[in-house]
Amino acid sequence: MSAPARGHGTELTAVTDRLVIQFADVMPRGVVEAEVAAADQELRGQVPTGAMAEMLHRLVAARLEENDLTPQA
Q1: Is 0.70 topped by the overall pTM?
Q2: Residue 70 DSSP code
Q3: Torsion angle of alpha carbons 6, 3, 29, 32, nearest 10°?
Q4: How far is residue 56 CA from its own chain's centroid?
Q5: d(CA 60, CA 28)
Q6: Separation of alpha carbons 73 and 52, rounded Å
Q7: Residues near 53 by Cβ (< 8 Å), separated by ≥ 6?
Q8: Measured at the alpha carbon of residue 21, what is the angle toward residues 28 and 26, in degrees to the nearest 5?
Q9: Domain ranges for the chain
Q10: Side-chain half-sphere exposure of 41, counting CA atoms within 13 A
Q11: Is the pLDDT confidence value at 4 over 50?
Q12: Distance CA 70, CA 66 (A)
């Protein structure tokens, strides 16, 4: 397991780990972690605490799928 992003504990760690597994074949962990941190910063204070993990997962997954953030070789 990774260290918690931005100090928000297990919530962000769990989201990050699920997304790393989901995108394991196409996305390095560092890209996923950066996207989770960016989305967390954007959503913090805008989304009720109880919904944060699901909203983070959905937003980051959509960004990774739609924006083709796969590093070019």
Answers
A1: yes
A2: P
A3: -30
A4: 6
A5: 14
A6: 34
A7: 11, 14, 15
A8: 40
A9: 29-67
A10: 8
A11: no
A12: 11
- Say how many residues make up the chain: 73
The angle at the Cα of 18, spanning 58 to 60, to the nearest 5 degrees, equals: 30
Supply the pLDDT for residue 62.
96
Contacts of 58 (CB under 8 A, 6+ apart): none
Cα(11)–Cα(67) distance, integer angstroms: 24
Cα–Cα dist 51/22, whole Å: 20
Spatial CB neighbours of 70, under 8 Å, sequence gap ≥ 6:
26, 27
Structure tokens at 19: 């997304």
* SS3 category, 16: helix
